[in-house]
Amino acid sequence: MTAHFDSTEQTLVIIKPDGVQRKLVGRIIQRFEDRGLTIKKMYQTMLEPKKVQEHYDHLKERDFFPALIDYMTSGPVVVIILENKDVIQIVRSMIGATNPLSAAPGTIRGDFAVSTTENVIHASDSEEAAAVEIQRFFHEQ
Ligand code: IDP
Ligand code: MG
């Protein structure tokens, strides 16, 4: 195994329906390219409720879960694999906190979102999550 292979990591990003509807796709991708990250794969689709339920399984007991599923299936999303050394942590820091009160200005959520639910973007939060999510959203590609 080469050092280059060892140092390369992938993460899964979803530009959520509000991001696509508000025509933020170009500006969000620009941020990733400006940072130097590599876009490996990308497509636009309408998500099936079943796939969103799977994706947010860790939240299924929460009262906002039905609203979250409705929101995520309300319009097209853009699904992206980004690649770079340490890309999972880099992208999490670029998207900002889930709570809009904590999402720092300069982050994607801090610049484009004021809602806890409709917060423009998803990104994998660990190596384990990234592997599962890439398989979930790209196994047919
Ligand atoms: P993350 O997207 O920052 O990783 P998670 O806790 O994994 O945050 O939650 C997944 C998504 O569920 C959030 O991005 C947001 O759309 C929604 N969500 C999370 N917590 C809340 C909440 O307290 N109220 C409403 N929606 C929430
Ligand atoms: Mg999460």
UniProtKB/TrEMBL annotation:
It is an enzyme of class 2 (transferase). It is found in: Cytoplasm. GO terms for cellular component: cytoplasm. InterPro entries: NDK-like_dom, NDK-like_dom_sf, Nucleoside_diP_kinase, Nucleoside_diP_kinase_AS. Keywords: ATP-binding, Cytoplasm, Kinase, Magnesium, Metal-binding, Nucleotide metabolism, Nucleotide-binding, Phosphoprotein, Transferase. ATP binds at residues 16, 64, 92, 98, 109, 119. Residues 8-141 form the Nucleoside diphosphate kinase-like domain. Its cofactor is Mg(2+). Its EC number is 2.7.4.6. The keyword Magnesium applies. It comes from the Bacteria. The active site is at 122 (pros-phosphohistidine intermediate). Its main location: cytoplasm. The keyword Kinase applies. It catalyses: a 2'-deoxyribonucleoside 5'-diphosphate + ATP = a 2'-deoxyribonucleoside 5'-triphosphate + ADP; a ribonucleoside 5'-diphosphate + ATP = a ribonucleoside 5'-triphosphate + ADP. Pfam families: NDK. GO terms for biological process: CTP biosynthetic process; GTP biosynthetic process; UTP biosynthetic process. GO terms for molecular function: ATP binding; metal ion binding; nucleoside diphosphate kinase activity. Major role in the synthesis of nucleoside triphosphates other than ATP. The ATP gamma phosphate is transferred to the NDP beta phosphate via a ping-pong mechanism, using a phosphorylated active-site intermediate. Belongs to the NDK family. Homotetramer. HAMAP family: NDP_kinase (MF_00451). This is Nucleoside diphosphate kinase. It comes from Enterococcus pseudoavium.
